[in-house]
Amino acid sequence: xxxxxxxxxxxxxxxxxxxxxxxxxxxxxxxxxxxxxxxxxxxxxxxxxxxxxxxxxxxxxxxxxxxxxxxxxxxxxxxxxxxxxxxxxxxxxxxxxxxxxxxxxxxxxxxxxxxxxxxxxxxxxxxxxxxxxxxxxxxxxxxxxxxxxxxxxxxxxxxxxxxxxxxxxxxxxxxxxxxxxxxxxxxxxxxxxxxxxxxxxxxxxxxxxxxxxxxxxxxxxxxxxxxxxxxxxxxxxxxxxxxxxxxxxxxxxxxxxxxxxxxxxxxxxxxxxxxxxxxxxxxxxxxxxxxxxxxxxxxxxxxxxxxxxxxxxxxxxxxxxxxxxxxxxxxxxxxxxxxxxxxxxxxxxxxxxxxxxxxxxxxxxxxxxxxxxxxxxxxxxxxxxxxxxxxxxxxxxxxxxxxxxxxxxxxxxxxxxxxxxxxxxxxxxxxxxxxxxxxxxxxxxxxxxxxxxxxxxxxxxxxxxxxxxxxxxxxxxxxxxxxxxxxxxxxxxxxxxxxxxxxxxxxxxxxxxxxxxxxxx
Length: 521
Description:
mainly alpha
């Protein structure tokens, strides 16, 4: 392991991460110093970041130029951990979140595009009361965490003698490419340009449907990145605008698609549209969204009626309202965005099961979404049917195929290992959360799935009587779309941070770091 080389590359990331904080610092200069001193928060954070970058550079200034996959894994893993730690400093030094664990949770949640928040709990301010500089910083962390940080490595670090190949291979969340090494940087830049264009288009669309410029930019950053941080405690539900919701649905759905497909469509002016639309993962992705929102709509229409909501009571007697709320919140959960227009914890059980399935599966590979990913679910389903046919006809000669191509045994084995490991970690995480007696089985399972899948809101069990909703159990926590993670114990918040990073890197990177063989030279 070439630790000196790793340190030098980490210096580049920390330097970049410190410099981008100049944008929220500019907002801070126009804000009063009371009750929150955001100028001191961001200035101090930049100073700490530059100092860390200088120390890392000095540690690696004489590093040899060799750079292998092992170093790439270490850079990506430690890069996320460093960024998450540094991103919480403005919250602490501005006085908004004096508790360092709360600040770390907010930072890791933003950078991993999880979107869970500690704001709005007892002892923490509401989102609306935050200064614009911190609201912008939350949105910017979502933007950077989408596909930003790894592409910063790939685009900027060639000047340091690194091609980016090993870094790209180590960031398992899925900026995938079929191109070879000579065109790797070109593909990475194309993906980043696509990401920027989608963000700009989303911001303009939000402006067109009535959002203020600041809200439009912040929500665009968190929509395409499927991050879910909002400038309101009630998320996009606070605006109560069908136009805003339609823009968000389109943006979230695009954020859940493989960006390489979008780049191919733009580069070839739609000539590859038929090929892209025939992708089994894309077909299954949109089919799942449509079926999920249909089931949720019918569940609300047939069994919802007057349902308690965060801002009052929502009447689901009309099909239009059922379709509107189901469409938005199903797409939000399935793409692991975490926006909400309703407190869906009080929805009928069938609708909640649809949302829980969405937490587990997530979006497409190569997207900004979290979750297990649609492609792995498709391959697992094909494998099950394949073995079913082999059981009925044991002498038949057949190969497992996807989209007309034969799947190699190592690919299938890797998918199965990921599925088993992912589900096992959801279960292990649920047992850890069960250490808090205020959490019930539904809480523990959905919080674990939401953290590992980078979804954000969980599903706290509620009972509905006389048009009102109450959480199950005395002192129960509301971890749903209109709730907060701020009242969780510090130990569970730190565990949630670890789950968020492991989920964002899709398990293998941080788990490999636990192997003694990884560190042997």
